[in-house]
Amino acid sequence: SEKCLLRHFSSVGFWGLVNNAGISTFGETGWLSMEKYEKIADVNLLGSIRTTLAFLPLLRKYKGRIVFMSSIVAYFSLGNGIYSMTKAAIEKFCDALRLEMKKFGVRVCIIQPGNYARSTRIQPPVSAEEIWNELSEEEKAVYNKEYVQERANFFNSILSKGSTNGNEVVDAMVDALMSPTPKARYMVAKLTEKALVFVCALFPTVVMDSVLSYALSK
User: Fold this and answer.
1) Catalytic residue (one of 75, 83, 116, 186)
2) pLDDT tens across 85-108, in order?
3) What is the pLDDT of residues 175-195, one digit of tens each?
4) 75 given a catalytic annotation
């Protein structure tokens, strides 16, 4: 239980917490049920917050480190807006926590991986048939099976291009925990992914929307 863990670590010391839990799903906004939004937010966002709050007294006491698993999709979305939403929220939670913990000597670090779907298997291949069968009648009246199949194929192609070098993300996590001067953010991504984040962060929204709309149309 949580109380037993806290008692144990109070006597032996507690210096690092890694919030790594995460789940994902695919679908346009109206395709997803409220239950799915709640489940993914509960694991990806509220789960990390619950764990952080539980161990915060010990982390302050031992001047520890807190590491959060975010993603470059905190900056943009290509079919998994529900996942992007939770990662963007985690980023803002960390920004507040990092500043608040500075006076206690606690470091807060964010890992921002690119596409490592083939390493983590966080997202299984998408089935257009399953998506269609789960759509409400209202959504079926707006979309058609061909469109759902196109979006599923597009998303599956992204998943298939994911890196298998998951050790790169682990190395960043280790550095965040062990380095005398850890970074606030570790972006572990391909050059093209970093370029997309750069465009999103520095260019007007209309430019980013045009880039993503072009990608989605291919």
Assistant:
1) 83
2) 999 999 999 999 999 999 999 999
3) 999 999 999 999 999 999 999
4) no
